[in-house]
Amino acid sequence: IKIKITNIDIPVAFASAFEGEIIRRGDMQVEFDGSRVDCAELVQTVDASEIEDHKITVVGPEADEMELGSKNSIAYVVKVAGKNMQPDFEPVIERKFHNYINCIEGVYHTGQRDMQRIRISKDAFNAGFRIKHIGEVLYASVKNEFDAVVDKCEVVIYTDPAECTRIRHEVAIPTFDKRDDRLKSLTDESVDVYYSCILCQAFSPSHVCVVTPERLGLCGAVSWLDAKATNELDPNGPCQVITKERPIDERIGEYEDVNEAVQKFSQGALQDVSLYSIMEKPMTSCGCFECICGIEPFSNGVVITNREYAGMTPLGMTFPELASMTGGGVQTPGFMGHGKHFIGSKKFMKAEGGIERIVWMPKELKETVAERVNATAKELYGIDNFTDMIGDETIATDPETLVAFLTEKNHPALSMEPMM
Ligand code: SF4
Ligand code: ZN
Fold first, then answer.
1. Which listed residue, of 54, 56, 118, 403, carries a Cα 20 to 30 Å from 283's Cα?
2. How far is the centre of ligand 1, averaged over its atoms, from the C-alpha of 204 (Å)?
3. Which domains does the chain have, with CATH numbers?
């Protein structure tokens, strides 16, 4: 018999009302920061005999042994067992940690994998909230939401810095790499089905993401494998199977089956979408895209900017300005929201010539995606170090300076066909 845990045993409130809560530096007791010290959050599938249900262990100092206002390491490993559990479900469960921890009154969480950041407020600490309570929340939430696959759950939270370093580098990162590699070997052609995702319809009622192996959801958080796992976990849930048996136009990636699915899931608001074009029937955008790509007419190319970049782009618009004209679940040819990981994909605006069209990105984004983008450019066009040809804010934020730079670098977009 499975029992729903309705009351989580922690000294502060737990409700979705606290999700948007921000904890300022001055109100914070302690923080954990994966961008500065070793942190990780991980779900591990184990054999039922290896774990004890509801056991929560803290290895290292508790919050009351940490200095007020200090930045610390944290790594939590949520071990799960169940006869229906599959390793493919691990990232889907992990992705929910952000919501779970954010629902705690006086606790804030951002990021994922080994880049999470957590703050515990002075008020929560004074009410008795400790690190072990994060374990209680993770335990209860995972057991509640994933009861179809998780029979037993045990949480180990490491705060000892040496242990956090070990967990991050020897356990977590190899696991993340293995997951990413699995996806790398999949192509859109090698699979029989794609998946829809309508999780964002709460905010963007007609928006549908079509998730393929080479095109993840625009939020960057839903890969094809994640969508597949989400569908298996909840067959009536947000991710549905889309067949791809009736292609209409391979060049732009349009299928009759995909169009029918999009019509159905958008309640008729959307008629047809392409998977690989930003000019013809582009996919819609909700509001949570990691990046926006827009055409830059002077260079025949496209500019990409990301949420973290607050500055100006050569299109004369900032990210929020571009977002206001791209979001909302409507098709806006020439502009498209997408995930960071999509930038290095061979399917990135393939219909318009692919990543060869990219003429500008914020420096930090360019550095993040450089390895994949350069590998793709080498493979598709034989270009070495393609990112050296792409402008950034240290080179230009206006079209004239950008075009001068591109001309000097002999950027391929300049000699391509105009996009409009
Ligand atoms: Fe799903 Fe992400 Fe698309 Fe939202 S943006 S519908 S969560 S894939
Ligand atoms: Zn969204």
1. 403
2. 10
3. 16-183 (3.30.1650.10), 193-415 (3.40.1470.10)
